[in-house]
Design a protein that fits this description.
Keywords: Hydrolase, Magnesium, Metal-binding, Phosphoprotein, Signal, Zinc. This is Alkaline phosphatase. Pfam families: Alk_phosphatase, GDPD_2. Its cofactor is Zn(2+); Mg(2+). The structure is a single chain. With about 600 residues, the protein is α/β, with parallel strands linked by helices. The protein has two domains: about 15-255, Phosphatidylinositol (PI) phosphodiesterase (TIM Barrel); about 280-605, Alkaline Phosphatase, subunit A, CATH 3.40.720. It has a ten-stranded mixed beta sheet, sandwiched between helices. Strand 20 (about 550-555) and strand 21 (about 560-565) form a beta hairpin. Helix 11 (about 295-305) packs across helix 20 (about 510-535), helix 12 packs parallel to helix 21 and helix 18 (about 475-485) runs parallel beside helix 20 (about 510-535). Residues about 1-15 have low confidence and may be disordered.
């Protein structure tokens, strides 16, 4: 992502219609303004499949020089060298076509010198490039100091003309006009921030509609050049979005198909009763819910898509966790989860060990002394970093077979998720040894309701596909079943349940993936809150190991359940993540603290039980 994109995202206030419309825009709708001023003329825009490029030309001594002003003329920078020769080379490469996918390219040539002299010079040069003039997917459009319309009939049919603001054209002349170009500042003084004031927007929209009514395309020059403007102009139907930042606009447009999501059916939220929502009441059970990759924007995106309601946002005791690892400003899930599971800052990729490689007991190990039972649930692989940190001890998160073997030394009673292969498809007899320790192993999520033994593993990879691919209510049902199974233990339980694929949606820079996983996680949150209110002795904590994707919300519509976003990275970020708490001792989680404090707070609360 370019620095330009990152800077532009700081000041977005998008028009909602534009957000939806951008999903249909591609780089075929992009216009490389003053293309010759880019570091690599023509090819920067061409390789991004821009639909239009612009070159200003000066006629001098039988040659056309490309420059913005006459004083900038360079003998090495001619129209032929920068544009006509590259066009011809691409036509040869693709057997007479300009792109390999059948798209078209418009070359907008802006005359800066006398119209007749410049036109004659252009026509002489084009005689040397007959493949260009014959290609149906190349449009040569003359702008700037163009010949008067009455003279257009004197020029070959492959020469087209840019329509002018006050131009009056006959029917025949209109046939030579593929688009109209206008100075943006003639219609509005909008600076690209916020929204265009209503009267100016109406004036612009009326102009755009009138051009479209003629069956022509439209572009503006002199418009602000940032993300908010691109969204606004595309939302109003402008055919070519001009830019001096072709790579930035290309990156933005390429991301649009995965940028928006509209929820069809919002889920109902639990009506919180805030039973014992204090720091005084006894805590018998702890449910730690980790939204992998979940930051504030993922939460608000879910809130928007669910039409202004989330179970999570009913919680009133909120803090923030600082997530850096021992060796990096930006943590990964292994170090982030290890901090919460063991209270130790560690290096990225380390599981259940500190930064020197020394093993540390996790919460399930430490609460054995209280007679508590433990369970781990993930909407992903149960040997992946976040759940692994609560039972595994390895110097590398990818050692998933070794992590699975660590369960032999762990007191965890229940594991639910994917990753069966790490327990069964191996050279040792791990599955048999686990069965000897009393574990029942099931390979089908459909068996969930029939799991009645004291200790069990339910590992079904087909059940932990993304929500968009049919995972269904795996996470909430698994949590409800596990609570039901453990609630009769008089000494209480600890459950860690992970919304694993919020992270995957962030890595994929896919808003629908991200939001649907957030909504699924919120259903599990609702189930935990409901039990906490019924039980009165259960502390529910909801947090994240880190944020993924650098998601920015460009806009949305809460009433319609529509959200539109843009990612700044396909990796994790360093921003603090929220910590929500509900039930007894939930007040203890207010404030700003290191992620290791989540472990410390849980252990302190449990140690003080009477």
């Amino acid at each position: 992502m370019t620095k330009y994109i990152l800077a532009s995202l700081l000041s977005l206030a998008a028009v909602q219609a534009g957000l939806a419309q951008t999903a249909h825009y591609t780089t075929a709708n992009a216009h490389a303004h003053n293309d010759y001023e880019h570091d690599i003329p023509f090819f920067t825009a061409y390789y991004k499949h821009f639909g239009s490029v612009e070159a200003d030309v000066f006629a001098r001594n039988g040659q056309l020089y490309v420059a913005h002003e006459e004083k900038g003329i360079d003998s090495a920078r001619t129209l032929a060298k920068l544009y006509l020769q590259p066009l011809q080379a691409m036509l040869k490469k693709y057997n007479g076509d300009i792109f390999d996918n059948g798209s078209s390219l418009q070359l907008l040539i802006d005359f800066k010198t006398d119209s007749l002299v410049t036109m004659q010079t252009l026509l002489r040069q084009l005689q040397q490039f007959p493949d260009i003039t014959r290609c149906p997917h190349i449009q040569l459009v003359i702008s700037g100091s163009q010949p008067v319309p009455a003279q257009w009939k004197e020029y070959p049919g492959y020469i087209l003309f840019d329509g002018k603001k006050d131009g009056v054209y006959t029917a025949a002349q209109q046939q030579r006009i593929p688009l109209f170009s206008y100075n943006f500042k003639d219609y509005t003084q909008w600076n690209g921030k916020g929204a265009i004031v209503a009267p100016e927007k109406e004036r612009l929209q009326s102009l755009i509609d009138s051009v479209h009514h003629m069956g022509k395309k439209i572009r503006f020059w002199g418009a602000p050049d940032n993300v908010n403007t691109w969204i606004t102009l595309s939302g109003m139907g402008v055919d070519y979005i001009g830019t001096d930042h072709p790579e930035g606009l290309a990156a933005f447009l390429d991301s649009r198909p995965m940028a928006g999501y509209r929820a069809a059916d919002p889920h109902q939220v639990y009506a919180a009763r805030y039973v014992n929502n204090d720091r005084l009441s006894k805590v018998k059970n702890v449910i730690l819910l980790i939204g992998d990759g979940m930051g504030l924007t993922q939460i608000y995106a879910g809130y928007t898509a669910n039409r202004g309601k989330l179970n999570l946002l009913q919680m009133i005791n909120i803090g923030f966790s600082k997530t850096s690892s021992a060796d990096s400003y930006i943590t990964d899930s292994a170090a982030g989860a290890t901090a919460m599971a063991t209270g130790q800052k560690t290096n990225n990729r380390y599981i259940g060990v500190d930064a020197t490689g020394v093993k540390h007991p996790a919460i399930p190990d430490l609460i054995q002394r209280y007679g508590m039972e433990s369970a781990l649930i993930s909407a992903g692989d149960i040997t992946d970093a976040t759940p692994a940190a609560f039972y595994g001890h390895q110097p590398e998160r990818s050692m998933q077979d070794a992590i699975a073997r660590d369960l032999l030394q762990s007191p965890v009673s229940i594991l639910v998720g994917g990753g069966l292969r790490h327990f069964e498809q191996r050279n040792d007899s791990l599955a048999a040894r686990l069965q000897q320790k009393g574990y029942t192993i099931s390979r089908r999520f459909a068996d969930l309701d029939n799991m009645h033994t004291a200790k069990w593993l339910l590992l079904d990879d087909s059940a932990v596909v993304p929500v968009l691919k049919g995972r269904g209510d795996f996470l909430a049902r698994s949590l409800q079943k596990t609570i039901q199974h453990l609630q009769d233990n008089q000494h209480g339980f600890f459950i860690m349940a992970e919304g694993a694929q919020i992270d995957a949606g962030g890595h994929a820079n896919n808003v629908p993936y991200n939001v649907t996983e957030m909504l699924d996680f919120d259903k599990a949150i609702g189930a935990a809150m409901q039990f906490a209110d019924t039980n009165g002795e259960t502390l529910v904590i909801v947090t994240a190991d880190h944020e993924t994707g650098g998601l920015s919300l460009l806009g949305g519509d809460i009433r319609e359940g529509y959200v539109n976003g843009h990612f700044s990275t396909n990796d994790h970020t360093a921003v603090m993540v929220p910590v929500f708490a509900y039930g007894p001792h939930s007040l203890d989680f207010r404030g700003v603290y290191e992620n290791t404090e989540i472990f410390e707070k849980i252990m302190k609360i449990l140690s003080e039980r009477k």
